[in-house]
Amino acid sequence: MTALLPADPFDGPFPRLGRRLRLGIVGGGRIAGTQAMAARMTDRWEVVAGALSSDPDKARARGAEWYLPPERCYASFNDMAEAEAARTDGVDAVMITTPNHVHFAAAKAFLAAGIDVLCDKPLTNEVAEAEELVRLAEASGLVFAVGYAMSCFPMIRQAQRIVAEGGLGRINQVHVEFLQDWMTPPESAEAEHVKWRLDPLRSGATSCVGDIGTHAAHLASLVSGLALTHLRAEFHVCGAPKPLEDTAFMFTRYDGDVPGTLMATRLAPGNRGGLRLRIFGSEGGLEWDLESSELLKFNRFGEPDRVLSRGHGHGISPEVERFVRTGRGFPEGIIEAWANLYTEFAMAVAARRDGLAPPEGWLAYPTVREGADGVRFIAAAVRSSQAGGAWTELDPEGDPENV
């Protein structure tokens, strides 16, 4: 078998592979198109199979839109996992982009078939299911990534590095918010691609928190290097009546009793990609805004303000430069962030197939454990809100309790 990675692949930029990896799709909605576009951008993946509908005729019709051969258009993810595992040219990995309630069963089926997985977030709707996927993935030795694409912007990785190297001193507060406005019109809840997000049977116990709130929580812990330990949450329906929340406000606590805040809403007119992160420490602060994603504000107290920009050099670490595609001043955005995730996923899949163990720090894609942390965050937020905003602990074993 031809090696996928070249000799000594761990120094410098991410290497080209010996061949493009074969990617399958479960779920054919809008986010699947976004992720497939990003995966192709890396020049390391080609989409070859899919389970795009549970109706066989619709599955073949959707597959034709993706230029998939009819025999590789499946009406069941179980059938797809079994058939692709048996093929000599079967998928190397699968992306799972279904509504939330399907994530667990689909991921479990592909792990059982020996196929690497990238699953959208939230990982599952139940803590016990998330923890089972952690056990299954780690026992199998397969690669399991989770779709926290916001963590793959170059300037987020640069911020993470600044904090890890002590650039802010001792962290003393962490603030994150994700404000959107697309659910402001009352009729927005009736759109077909929105209905499942407000259905507890499919979305789980939350809507806004499980969707954009998990991005915010993951980003805050990733960059600060601190685990979220406690929260107090209030869920609200600020717009037209809905079965699940459209807004949530939280006070948070991290390792070392570091305080913070987390806000998420879909009813903030004038905000579209309003993901903002602010971390302050004893010696300085960092601020990042998704809508100005190429810039990172970095202040050292008593020194001139600094604004770092994505590109080569000018304070950007070599590890972050691996994700740079265009020169400074030529913008990149969310598709490139997804592509960064699929690049690291490709490197992990290739290394596993070549029997190589990447050195620590070479890859930083969001793992199945981070996905399980997100489910524990959701569970704690639900309990807290139901208890009138009581302080609630995120237990590492998935058994939150009030404190």
Key phrases:
five-stranded parallel β-sheet; ten-stranded mixed β-sheet; 15 strands; 34% helix; 403 residues; alpha/beta; disordered C terminus
Provide an overview of this structure.
The chain has 403 residues and is an alpha/beta fold. Helix content is 34%, strand content 21%. The longest helix has 21 residues. It is globular, with a radius of gyration of 21 Å.
Radius of gyration: 21 Å
Order of helices and strands: EHEHHEHEHEHEHHHEEEEEEEHHHEE
* Uncertain spans: 398-403
Q: What is the mean predicted local confidence, pLDDT?
A: 95
Number of helices: 12
Report the end-to-end length measured between terminal Cα atoms. Answer: 55 Å
Helix and strand arrangement:
Layout: E1 21-26, H1 30-41, E2 45-51, H2 56-65, H3 77-86, E3 93-96, H4 103-112, E4 116-119, H5 127-140, E5 144-146, H6 154-164, E6 171-179, H7 192-195, H8 200-203, H9 208-224, E7 228-236, E8 247-254, E9 258-265, E10 274-281, E11 284-289, E12 295-300, E13 306-309, H10 318-321, H11 334-354, H12 368-386, E14 392-393, E15 401-402
Parallel strand pairs: 1-2, 1-3, 3-4, 4-5, 6-9
Antiparallel strand pairs: 6-10, 7-8, 7-14, 8-9, 10-11, 11-12, 12-13, 14-15
Helix pairs in contact: 1-11, 3-4, 4-5, 5-12, 6-9, 9-12
